[in-house]
Design a protein that fits this description.
Layout: E1 8-13, E2 21-23, E3 29-32, E4 37-41, E5 48-53, E6 58-63, E7 69-74, E8 79-84, E9 89-94, E10 96-97, E11 100-101, E12 105-110, E13 116-120, E14 129-134, E15 140-148, E16 151-156, E17 162-167, E18 172-178, E19 184-192, E20 197-203, E21 209-215, E22 218-222, E23 228-233, E24 243-249, E25 255-260, E26 265-270
Antiparallel strand pairs: 1-26, 2-3, 3-4, 4-5, 6-7, 7-8, 8-9, 10-11, 12-13, 13-14, 14-15, 16-17, 17-18, 18-19, 20-21, 21-22, 22-23, 24-25, 25-26
Length: about 280
């Protein structure tokens, strides 16, 4: 058994194959389900409440700066939803941009200015992924159009100088520079992860990147210079079961929460490191 599994627990149960997880600054944990459910989980993990339903298949989630609303990527409805957190009201935020209609809107990331980046995976097993970008008022564009091999989870790098993008069938992580005017810069390979299907990303405060994998049941740790080690491994697939998206949360942002697409629970890992604060946390 991997040593870190002893510091990992089933945090909340009864979810419908959650693909995604996001941590609200009030301590609640949010996740989605394969039948369109949006779940809000109490800070102690004991209460799981379905607060909305898109009728689709929920992929990535992201809270806006100051956590006023939740961006929801929906595979089934092929759109990004906006969930007003005060009213718990769903409205369609975007169905595409720049003449492109979403096929697989997979993951969403905000920057500090409130711009929203959305990975478009494209068609399965075809290299035609891209990244779309939306301004705070909802105006969208194709931000990066050079084909990505199934663009999936993303993370804004420290200092917002690069956007890190999982390319699941590379398999690995690439990064795209962000120019001073906000446009996309150069793309470079950050790391490769052979014999895996990487999915989700999260940074710690030291600039290390954590990469969760749909298969095998591992989370990798990648240093700023690209050195890669196994952070946690669950070959039995009981605590981690197809861990897709990950997010740092808890009172000190030192707990790593994972969605488990292969099961019905959210996992909490006492990571021993502090996560990089997102714009929703005032980072």
């Amino acid at each position: 058994m991997h040593p870190l599994l002893s510091k990992s627990t089933v945090f909340a149960e009864g979810l419908d194959h959650p693909e995604c997880v996001a941590c609200h600054p009030d301590g609640t944990i949010w996740a989605g389900g394969e039948a369109g459910q949006i779940y809000r989980i109490s800070p102690d993990g004991k209460t799981v409440e379905e607060v909305a339903n898109t009728g689709g298949f929920v992929l990535g989630l992201a809270f806006s700066p100051c956590a006023k609303w939740l961006a929801i990527c929906d595979l089934g409805k092929k759109c990004v939803w906006k969930l007003d957190l005060a009213l718990l009201k769903l409205t369609v935020f975007a169905e595409g941009a720049g003449g492109h209609r979403f096929k697989i809107p997979n993951y969403a990331v905000f920057d500090k200015k409130g711009n929203l980046y959305v990975s478009e995976s494209g068609a399965f097993r075809e290299v035609n992924g891209k990244v779309l970008k939306f301004s705070p008022d909802g105006k969208g564009e194709i931000w990066y159009n050079e084909p990505l091999n199934f663009a999936n989870g993303m993370a804004m790098g420290p200092g917002e100088k690069h956007l890190y993008v999982v390319t699941s069938f590379l398999p690995g992580v690439e990064r795209i520079g962000i120019q001073p005017d906000g446009s996309a810069g150069e793309r470079s390979l950050f790391c490769t992860l052979p014999e895996s299907v990487p999915d989700g990303l999260a940074f710690d405060t030291d600039g290390n990147l954590y990469v969760s994998c749909y298969a095998p049941n591992k989370i990798f740790k990648v240093t700023p210079n690209g050195d890669t080690t196994v952070f946690i491994d669950d070959w039995e697939a009981h605590t981690l079961s197809n861990p897709t998206n990950i997010a740092f949360g808890g009172p000190n942002l030192d707990q790593l929460f994972t969605a488990n697409l292969g099961r019905w629970h959210i996992t909490k890992i006492d990571a021993g490191v502090k996560g990089l604060a997102l714009p929703s946390h005032g980072g």
